[in-house]
Amino acid sequence: MKESKGNGDEFLNEVASIGRTSHVNIATLKGICFEGSKRALIYELMPNGSLEKFIYKGNPSSSNHHLVFKTLYKIAIGIARGLEYLHRGCNTRILHFDIKPHNILLDENFCPKISDFGLAKICLREKSTISMVSARGTTGYIAPEVFCRSFGRISYKPDVYSYEMMVLEMVGGRKNIDINVDFTSEIYFPHWIYKRLELN
């Protein structure tokens, strides 16, 4: 537990969101603590930690943890099933807004579970678009329409965009924004991929 900032909106939002779910690819909330400014969420034990430690080349924590393509594929499918459940399988649609490797936990069999619902938004299943006051998410995973409203209305698709960015990282073995690359044209991984495809 740690001292948290604000009035606990993110914490309560996470409890409200994840408390409505029950799916093999969604982390199970076992309990909470809410004493003044001290807050804690107790999830099921995930022995393998988060996905991020297994996918990035050159990451010291992943040096002895390379996953074979078959396992990465299984993880990608599991995350997709979890998102499909959040978007279509719940009584109310839950938009996560922060799909990234850090928020994907892996059990002892590398079954992926979506976690960290602090930025999630709950909306009616019938609504095709939602309104938001400010952008939500992590740089590199935020869909264009969330960042700049001139790109279009916001629906469940920002989660799909974040998922796609994460799959690129899983396949490429690097973060989608990497300032430690040799050429500035390689900083944004999707742009680099697009240029490589354009050349072929």
TrEMBL record:
SUPFAM superfamilies: Protein kinase-like (PK-like)
Gene3D superfamilies attached to this UniProt entry: Transferase(Phosphotransferase) domain 1
Bilayer topology annotation: Single-pass type I membrane protein
InterPro entries hit by this protein: Kinase-like_dom_sf (IPR011009), LRK10/LRL21-25-like (IPR045874), Prot_kinase_dom (IPR000719), Ser/Thr_kinase_AS (IPR008271)
GO cellular component: membrane
UniProt keyword Membrane, yes or no: yes
Domain (Protein kinase) ranges: 1-200
Enzyme category, top tier: transferase
EC number, UniProt record: 2.7.11.1
Keywords (A to Z) from UniProt: ATP-binding, Glycoprotein, Kinase, Membrane, Nucleotide-binding, Serine/threonine-protein kinase, Signal, Transferase, Transmembrane, Transmembrane helix
Main subcellular localisation: membrane
Transferase recorded as keyword: yes
Catalyzed reactions: L-seryl-[protein] + ATP = O-phospho-L-seryl-[protein] + ADP + H(+); L-threonyl-[protein] + ATP = O-phospho-L-threonyl-[protein] + ADP + H(+)
PANTHER family xref list: RUST RESISTANCE KINASE LR10-RELATED
Cellular compartment(s): Membrane
Pfam families: Pkinase (PF00069)
Protein's name in the database: non-specific serine/threonine protein kinase
GO molecular function: ATP binding; protein serine/threonine kinase activity
